[in-house]
Specification:
The complex is a heterodimer of chains A (1253) and B (266). Chain A is mainly β and 1253 residues long. Among the domains of chain A are: 66-169, no CATH class; 575-674, PH-domain like (Roll); 723-869, Jelly Rolls (Sandwich), CATH 2.60.120.200; 936-1035, no CATH class; 1046-1248, Regulator of chromosome condensation 1/beta-lactamase-inhibitor protein II (Methylamine Dehydrogenase, Chain H, 7 Propeller). By secondary structure, chain B is α+β, with helices and mostly antiparallel strands. Chain B has a domain at 14-106: Ubiquitin-like (UB roll), CATH 3.10.20. Chain B has a 5-stranded mixed β-sheet with strand order 2-1-5-3-4. Chain B is globular and about 70 Å long. The chains are: A mainly beta (1253), B alpha+beta (266). The interface between A and B is large, with 41 and 55 residues. Chain B: Its main location: cytoplasm. Chain B: Keywords: Acetylation, Apoptosis, Autophagy, Cytoplasm, Immunity, Isopeptide bond, Membrane, Ubl conjugation. Chain B: Residues 187-262 form the Autophagy protein ATG5 UblB domain.
Chain lengths: 1253, 266
């Protein structure tokens, strides 16, 4: 749960915030405007100023609000003039929107309000679907509603190009006045405002609803408010029933509106839905008692709280916000419940938590124990958070001649109730005349002090102060731009800490607003002064604790002399057994008894027949490489990868999730101990996530610790004495220079041709949809006894090169031999029986040699491979699981690791381990973690002449309830949750945000089923479909900490320098495709401080950075970008340089590092950027890496690649069938490498090898 | 919340070296049996750790006694099996009794009037669980223990029996939490052992004024007017200014009780 903010107004009208991670109220920078009421959703605050005008405050957004205005310029070819802007009368406008229906003349497109600022001039878009365009961005077509192509042809009669200009909301972190209703701001001021509606079911993300009440008791709705237009468009009057004079209202997160009427009743707006933000009608609700007048209400999701004029608090039962748009009963609830406590104001948060201001003591109270089962909670608990005052405000008040205390006391005494009881119309009138800052005067009462004390950055635009430049009305940017010349770029809503002086005092509060606060009842912030919570740090220092600990430790010293005593409880060996179902490979599941035995330090897993006597399979736990969840809903399953066993993959199905997790924990702890991977995760680890969101780590130090080493080389030895020639051994690191391969054996008595080969991966040529294999052999060493010659040769793509012949043979029939092949930079040197025999110059790079083979009539004895680099067999890697649920994980070599969840939340690795199924055992630094996923099913219908659209399809049709392809049957009832860790978050809902658009009921139409769908029904449409979704959430634990509000799409990390606590560059993409750089990330502070937005013309979908300041990205339209001007002082660089995508392919993902730049296209093919050099860091062209048979065979259902990760020396990828493959043979002369080494096919989704060196 | 793992771990790791000897009168074999040395967790109970002791000595006693229930005695006092071993040690071993703790084993003449018989490990499990529930009634009105599943209870018991700290605390931490609507435990579960059994009383961890009560307050309420009192728990003397809530969270035995051994000095 990231931090959120509670807002409050003190009795001076100053706005304060209290963060759920903080413990102190902080004042918002004061800008000469006091406030009376406040209403907020995260990042957006609407307030009623002391001058009874409405103000909006946008804060805490990491990415600026930007809108790209688009205008298509259309031209038609005329015989003499060529292309001109004079179009036919039937044609579209010269400047239009994409489908030509709206006039979009460039000079008519203006900024919507003063709060906006243009970024640059109008520019022509120079690419089409990622491919660069010539001809000044023109695209050509035969006629207008048509396909446009970049090439001009003889038949091209029309052309168009796209002009773009982006505008930015530049009034972030400041109060912005909303234009008054009338020219004279005093003629109808406001008395209340409320924002909500951020969670309307099915509405576009970013929708918000703002309602307000004027002093004439008219209800106003603000149209067009969204996160792309925070100030909205205009006020529109909403009629109230006759005789109902509204004095206050509140909008809930689901759009439900409650209003308090002057005579004490309440009005409820019914029919607020995603289509109808204003709702239909008012429903009257009686006041809680005959003589009781309701004067304030606050709406949550499933609760409405109210305060009556006698300060009594009431809870409305029976309200269901999610369904309030459909049902008046659920909107209005069924009855008032009286609550204890006297409160002046109450505020309900978006998760129904309740805050209030006490009527008598003016303290802020929190209602404890509010949960979905008990919305009324248990008791009121007061917040005791000290106040922190900014210098700007304190000096302002000091300059008024008084100390702050005096002033606050004065105000309290002189105006005891004016801020609170605005329900009384008389008082309001009274106030608008007598209040010191009536709308006709300047915002702060005292004229002289105002100008002296106004902070350096004036951050309020007052409607009166700046007539003609009011937010919400149109303005002339050319003349008014100067207003924003000094734009505030700090994304933090507070001034620097140095500017704050600290004064702790408890002020009387007049207002509290919880709409933006999302604290959980079970995880209360440090806001309550209590003896029991939050001071564990202090406890550690207490003398009594120190004394107890030292005395406890002293006990063990006394006992130390007796350590040889037998321990009463033996914890070193145990057996765990249980029933399960077992499947070998992909076979059917059969009953079995599973027995895990652990004796001292040896673990064995035995799969017994149900009789318990005979074994079906058995293997050592040290052979287990990965234990992975492979459950299907209702069937809790584990896949155990044992590559050395037969079969290499076994699966177990358990009776319950609990049993599964118990076994999973046993496997994990025992295998971890055997592979000595416990505790801390190495910095250079490779991280991976599976399709189910599980996180796995392979730590290279593990393999390094047990691989044999001889004089600086890594050694692998094979005993081949029981093998027969021909025999092939895989070389996992190639035959890189410095490698020495030694084989001993005995030549057969009747041998003729024998030999040793160093083979590369074959080249595959695709002909007539079938792959033909063309062999590559780096070295062919072939003594021929009959001819009496030794032949050396190489084969490239199936063709032998020129033979090198020696007319002698150093070997003899029937004799033992020892052949040693040493790879040097330019040749293989062959020694026979320790005497140099010959050399063979490289014809293929030795890096690409991936097999060593012996053949002919000989008996091999022993093979030794000595490699200067670690020999990595993907089948030897032990993948250890840690808790968490992620879609992506990225790491870098100093060990800073970030993840992105399925709901796009960013998570930062805490350096701990465990969590998830491991529970709290063997866990360190784990936190709670949640993630969301949507299940989607499609409802398909076919039209028939009699009944119209029905669910009776043709026999050849797809299932009427199906998945997106239509091949799988999916009904809503069938969809089950994966495991007990998942919970439904919603019911089935129609999805209105489907690509292609939908109609009012969510339907999309098409001519026939496997087709493109569109939103409007055409005459020829015979089928339609709609998408249903249901959201579920997982609750787990893991060594991850949630970061902020900004949701991420992709990210990458790269340390700047070579020491441990160096700065780490972190690039990320927000869900809108905006690039950002995280400031202040390092090993000691993996979370960093703030995001800095980096503008790009196009939305991006993938980003990657390597050292030497390379930053690469992929745009939504499929082209690549290279960042220019990145230096050590300016890590965010200067501008994006567009790099054309490979011909015919749109890129999807990119990964760049020392070893190269690799990109993945939409068809699942890989491309390597070639000829990258210091002078040309962006390279010259792409080389295609085809999907060849080894990749296709790596896992079932593989048709292409899913993800690629490039590291310092390695390139790894996952296939869409879930296999993990590692590129072999990459060397400076061949950055594309050759061939793949296949790892376990563990349903892998994505991996990161950036840290691995 | 009991989150000071360092202290919890140290309390859990507390062990006692014990030297078991068979009562000379009961030896029927010609050969005197060797004493049996064992390292025993302080938090455990004797019946859980003495299987090996029984096996070792039963060879040396007469046939008819072999099936008799084994009992133990120190300085002439039979050891009550239902007390945790650490409590017995604090209670019976004086400062002059050095380690290892020398205990005499008997098969004959079971002192039925002094100690209970126990037939099997289920008896002690039942006793342990009833203590745990009693403690929870005092702390949370019994809401947490009764809300637990059977497997949680099992995990607690197996964690104690198999000396698995993590396994035990994974469940026990729930019992040591303070519920959302409370600021502390309702009452502190404790027992004060004197020479003649133990005493209990309802004592709240916070005073009327919200102040945290300390061990000193507890002793004053239990033994009003007694000034010099020696308190022992886990083989050490806790400082009197230690807050009760913290003590209950961190220094309780696995049955969730604080077992204080109190010596009233006159």
């Amino acid at each position: 749960m990231p931090s959120s903010l509670l807002f409050g107004i003190n009795n001076e009208g100053r706005v304060h915030t209290l963060s759920t991670t903080g413990s102190m109220w902080r004042e918002l920078p004061y800008a000469g405007q006091e406030f009376k009421k406040l209403s907020g959703v995260p990042h957006f605050l609407w307030a009623l100023g002391g001058d009874h005008q409405i103000y909006v405050y946008v804060h805490g957004l990491d990415i600026p609000i930007r809108v790209v205005e688009e205008s298509y310029e259309n031209e038609r070819w005329l015989p003499i003039e060529g292309f001109t802007s004079r179009l036919l009368p039937t044609d579209r406008y010269n400047h239009s929107n994409i489908d030509g229906s709206v006039n979009r003349s460039i000079d008519k497109i203006t900024l919507p309000s003063m709060a906006w600022q243009w970024e640059g001039k109008w520019k022509v878009e120079l690419t089409l679907n990622g491919q660069p365009l010539d001809h000044d961005g023109w695209t050509y077509a035969v006629d207008f509603p048509a396909q446009y192509s970049p090439k001009k042809q003889w038949k091209s009669c029309v052309r168009r190009r796209l002009w773009q200009r982006s505008r930015r909301y530049s009034a972030m972190n400041t109060w912005c006045a909303i234009a008054p209703l009338h020219q004279d701001a005093t003629s109808e001021p406001f008395i209340d405002v409320s924002i909500g509606g951020q969670k309307i079911a099915g509405a576009c993300p970013g929708t918000m609803l703002v309602w307000a009440v004027t002093s004439h008791n008219r209800v106003m709705f603000r149209t067009g408010v969204s996160d792309k237009s925070p100030e909205g468009a205009r006020w529109s009057h909403v009629q109230t029933p006759p005789g109902c004079e509204v004095c206050q209202l509140s909008v809930g997160p689901t759009g439900l509106v409650w209003a308090a009427v002057l005579d004490g009743r309440a009005l409820v707006r019914s029919g607020v839905t995603r289509d109808n933000h204003q709702g239909d009608t008012w429903v009257e609700v009686r006041s809680p008692g005959d003589s009781l007048r309701l004067c304030q209400v606050s709406v949550g999701v499933c609760s409405v709280w109210g305060v009556t004029h006698d300060k009594q608090v009431w809870f409305r039962k029976g309200v269901k916000g999610e369904c309030a748009g459909m049902s008046e009963e659920l909107a209005a609830g069924c009855g008032w419940v009286e609550m204890v406590g006297r409160m002046a104001e109450v505020s309900v948060s978006a998760n129904d938590q309740v805050f209030a201001v006490g009527a008598d003591d003016r303290l802020v109270y929190f209602r404890t124990g509010v949960c979905p089962e008990d919305l009324t909670g248990k008791r009121w608990r007061s917040l005791h958070a000290p106040l922190q005052v900014s210098r700007a405000s304190s000096s302002a008040s000091l300059s008024r001649g008084d100390g702050k205390y005096n002033r606050s006391l004065n105000t309290l005494q002189s105006r005891p109730s004016s801020m609170i009881e605005q329900s009384n119309i008389a008082e309001i009138d009274d106030q608008s005349h007598s209040a010191p800052m009536g709308p006709t005067s300047l915002p702060v009462g005292d004229l002289t002090s105002k100008f002296e004390t106004e902070p350096r950055h004036a951050k309020t635009w007052n409607p009166v102060q700046s007539v003609g430049s009011i937010v919400g009305t149109e303005c002339h940017p050319e003349t008014d731009e100067s207003v924003w010349s000094e734009s505030s770029r700090d994304s933090c809503i507070f001034a620097e800490d140095e500017e704050l002086c600290w004064a702790e005092y408890e002020a009387p509060w007049s207002w509290v607003e919880a709409g933006a606060c999302t604290m959980e009842n079970h995880n209360l912030p440090n806001w309550f002064v209590d003896g029991t919570s939050g001071n564990s740090q202090m406890e550690l220092e207490q003398p009594w604790r120190v004394q107890i600990l030292s005395e406890l430790k002293a006990r063990s010293v006394n006992v130390d002399a007796y350590t040889h005593y037998e321990h009463a409880i033996d914890t070193t060996s145990w057996v765990h057994s249980g029933e399960a179902r077992f499947s070998m490979g992909n076979g059917p599941f059969v009953d079995c008894i599973l027995q895990l035995e652990w004796v001292q330090s040896i673990g064995t897993l035995t799969v017994l027949n149900p009789d318990g006597a005979t074994a079906m399979n058995s293997f050592a736990l040290s052979d287990v490489n990965c234990v992975q969840l492979c459950s299907e809903p209702g069937n809790p399953r584990l896949a155990v990868h044992v590559p050395r066993n037969n079969p290499p993959l076994v699966r177990f199905q358990f009776a319950s999730d609990t049993q599964l997790e118990e076994w999973q924990a046993h496997f994990s702890t025992t295998c971890g101990k055997l592979h000595q991977v416990v505790g801390k995760v190495g910095d250079e680890s490779v991280w991976a996530v599976s399709n189910l969101g599980d996180v796995f780590i392979w730590d290279p130090t593990e393999i390094e610790s047990y691989q044999l080493r001889e004089d600086e080389c890594y050694v692998q030895k094979y005993d081949l004495s029981r093998k027969e020639s021909p025999y092939k051994v895989k070389l996992h690191t190639g035959c890189i220079p410095g490698t020495k391969i030694t084989i001993t054996g005995c030549v057969g008595d009747d041998a003729d041709r024998i030999g040793v080969n160093l083979e590369s991966e074959p080249t595959y040529k695709l002909k007539h949809k079938a792959h033909t294999e063309l062999e590559n052999i780096c070295l062919h060493f072939n003594p021929r006894f009959r001819e009496g010659v030794t032949v050396r040769n190489a084969m490239i793509e199936g063709k032998w090169g020129g033979e090198e012949r020696d007319e002698q043979i150093a070997l003899q029939r029937g004799q033992e031999f020892k052949i040693c092949i040493e790879a040097t930079e330019d040749a293989f040197v062959i020694h026979i029986d320790d005497k140099k025999n010959s050399t063979f110059r490289h014809r293929l790079p030795p890096h690409s040699a991936s097999y060593f083979s012996v053949w002919g009539r000989l008996q091999p004895f022993k093979l030794t491979i000595k490699s200067p680099e670690i020999i990595l067999n993907p089948l030897d890697m032990y993948w250890r699981q840690i808790g968490g649920h992620l879609r992506r994980v990225e790491t870098c070599k100093v060990g800073v690791t970030w993840g992105v969840g399925y709901d796009h939340t960013a998570w930062v690795y805490t350096g701990g381990w465990g969590g998830g199924f491991l529970g709290t055992l063997d866990s360190q630094n784990v936190h709670g973690m949640t993630d969301c996923q949507d299940y989607k099913v499609y409802e398909n219908q076919r039209w028939n002449p009699v009944t119209g659209y029905t669910s009776a399809g043709l026999p050849t049709d797809r299932y009427m309830w199906s998945d997106s392809t239509g091949k799988q049957k999916r009904t809503r009832d069938q969809v089950k949750l994966l495991s007990m860790r998942w919970q439904w978050q919603s019911d089935w809902m129609t999805d209105f945000h489907v690509p292609g658009g939908v109609d009012g009921d969510g339907w999309q139409y098409a001519v026939d089923f496997p087709a493109t769908y569109h939103a409007n029904k055409h005459f020829t449409d015979y089928v339609r479909r709609r998408r249903w979704y249901r959201r579920c959430a997982v609750a787990t634990t893991g060594p991850w900490q949630e970061l902020g509000h900004t949701k991420l799409l992709d990210l990458c990390l790269e340390p700047v320098e070579d020491f441990a606590d160096t700065k780490v560059v972190l690039w990320a993409l927000a869900t809108g495709g905006q690039a950002m750089v995280r400031i202040g990330v390092s090993k000691s502070n993996p979370m960093g401080h703030v995001w800095e937005h980096v503008t790009s013309d196009q939305a991006l979908c993938s980003i990657s950075c390597g050292p030497y300041k390379q930053v690469w990205a992929v745009g939504r339209k499929g082209c690549a970008f290279y960042r220019l001007g990145v230096t050590e002082d300016k890590l965010e660089g200067e501008k994006w340089h567009c790099v054309e995508p490979p011909g015919g392919g749109q890129l999807r993902q990119i990964s760049a590092d020392v070893i190269g730049v690799w990109a993945l296209d939409l068809q699942g093919r890989l491309h390597v950027r070639k000829e990258i050099s210091k002078a040309f860091p962006e390279g010259t062209h792409w080389q295609l890496i085809d999907v060849d048979p080894p990749v296709l065979n790596a896992a079932p259902n593989s048709t292409g690649f899913k993800h690629v990760s490039v590291g310092k020396k390695e390139v790894w990828a996952t296939t869409n069938g879930g296999a993990m493959v590692r590129r072999l043979g990459i060397c400076p002369t061949n950055p594309a490498g050759s061939g793949w080494d296949t790892g376990i096919s563990g349903n892998w989704q994505q991996l990161s090898v950036k840290a691995f060196n | 919340m009991a989150n000071d793992r360092e202290v919890l771990r140290e309390v859990w790791e507390g062990k006692l070296p014990i030297c078991f000897k068979l009562d000379n009168d009961e030896v029927v074999d010609i050969q005197q049996p060797d004493p049996f040395y064992l390292m025993v967790p302080r938090l455990s109970y004797f019946p859980l750790v003495t299987d090996k002791v029984k096996k070792h000595f039963s060879k040396y006693v007469s046939k008819e006694l072999q099936d008799q229930e084994m009992w133990m005695e120190f300085n002439g006092q039979p050891l009550k099996w239902q007390y945790p071993i650490g409590v017995l040690s604090d209670l019976l071993r004086g400062p002059e009794d050095h380690l290892p703790w020398s205990i005499t084993v008997h098969f004959d003449k079971f002192p039925e009037l002094v100690i209970y018989k126990f037939s099997n490990k289920e008896t002690i499990e039942a006793y342990f669980m009833s203590c745990l529930k009693e403690a929870d009634v005092l702390k949370h009105r019994g809401l947490i223990a009764s809300g637990m599943q059977k497997k949680d209870h099992n995990q607690l018991w197996l964690g104690l029996q198999n000396d698995k700290f993590d396994q035990f605390w994974a469940v026990n931490r729930k019992l040591m939490e303070i519920t959302a609507d409370q600021e502390s435990f309702k009452y502190i579960p404790f027992r004060c052992y004197t020479d003649d059994g133990y005493r209990q009383k309802l004592i709240k961890p916070l005073g009327e004024d919200g102040r945290k009560k300390t061990l000193e307050d507890l002793l004053n309420e239990m033994f009003p007017g007694r000034s010099s009192i020696n308190v022992k728990i886990h083989g050490m003397n806790p400082p009197l200014e230690t807050p009760l809530q913290w003590m209950s969270e961190h220094l309780s035995y696995p049955d969730n009780f604080l077992h204080f051994v109190v010596q009233l000095e006159s």
